[in-house]
């Protein structure tokens, strides 16, 4: 197994409902360690930059408006196979299809308001981490 880092975000629907601690606990209980964390309220421009990979998708405007509608928690997680572990703990994007006990099964309101975001690959993780954190802000 490989020790790696991944990016995780607690979205506005979850911060509005004061679920930051509950979600972070689920991540930590799964063996992931928070090595950087910050509460941000991203501007529409920040959201558009972060989700630029989706700019040609029909949901882009709705996504970026939602992501700039309230505070988010941006985090760097570390652990054995952290990317896969984080995605497992998050559950399927559609909470109705998410496995029991996953973040999205427990906390998501809908496909759009699904409480969390996580990197899907090492390259994506590196890019998303660099978007929000400098090397000196990540302390393991």
TrEMBL record:
Function recorded in the entry: Major role in the synthesis of nucleoside triphosphates other than ATP. The ATP gamma phosphate is transferred to the NDP beta phosphate via a ping-pong mechanism, using a phosphorylated active-site intermediate.
Domain Nucleoside diphosphate kinase-like residues, every copy: 3-140
InterPro entries noted in UniProt: NDK-like_dom, NDK-like_dom_sf, Nucleoside_diP_kinase, Nucleoside_diP_kinase_AS
Protein name as it appears in the record: Nucleoside diphosphate kinase
Keywords, ordered alphabetically: ATP-binding, Cytoplasm, Kinase, Magnesium, Metal-binding, Nucleotide metabolism, Nucleotide-binding, Phosphoprotein, Transferase
Reactions catalysed according to its record: a ribonucleoside 5'-diphosphate + ATP = a ribonucleoside 5'-triphosphate + ADP; a 2'-deoxyribonucleoside 5'-diphosphate + ATP = a 2'-deoxyribonucleoside 5'-triphosphate + ADP
Active site: 117 (pros-phosphohistidine intermediate)
Gene3D superfamilies from the UniProt entry: Nucleoside diphosphate kinase-like domain (3.30.70.141)
Catalytic activity, EC: 2.7.4.6
Gene Ontology BP terms: CTP biosynthetic process; GTP biosynthetic process; UTP biosynthetic process
Encoding gene (name): ndk
PANTHER family for the chain: NUCLEOSIDE DIPHOSPHATE KINASE (PTHR46161), NUCLEOSIDE DIPHOSPHATE KINASE DDB_G0292928-RELATED (PTHR46161:SF3)
Coiled-coil annotated spans: none
Higher taxonomy: Bacteria, Pseudomonadati, Pseudomonadota, Alphaproteobacteria, Hyphomicrobiales
């Amino acid at each position: 197994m490989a020790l790696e880092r991944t990016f995780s975000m607690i979205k506005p629907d979850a911060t509005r409902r004061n679920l930051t601690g509950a979600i972070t606990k689920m991540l930590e209980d799964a063996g992931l360690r928070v090595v950087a964390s910050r509460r941000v309220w991203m501007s529409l421009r920040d959201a558009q930059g972060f989700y630029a990979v989706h700019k040609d998708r029909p949901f882009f405007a709705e996504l970026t408006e939602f992501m700039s509608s309230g505070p988010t928690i941006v985090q760097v997680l570390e652990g054995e196979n952290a990317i896969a572990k984080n995605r497992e703990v998050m559950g399927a994007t559609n909470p109705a299809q998410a496995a029991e006990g996953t973040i999205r099964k427990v906390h998501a309101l809908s496909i759009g308001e699904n409480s969390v975001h996580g990197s899907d690959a090492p390259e994506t993780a590196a890019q998303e981490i660099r978007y929000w954190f400098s090397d000196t802000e990540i302390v393991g």
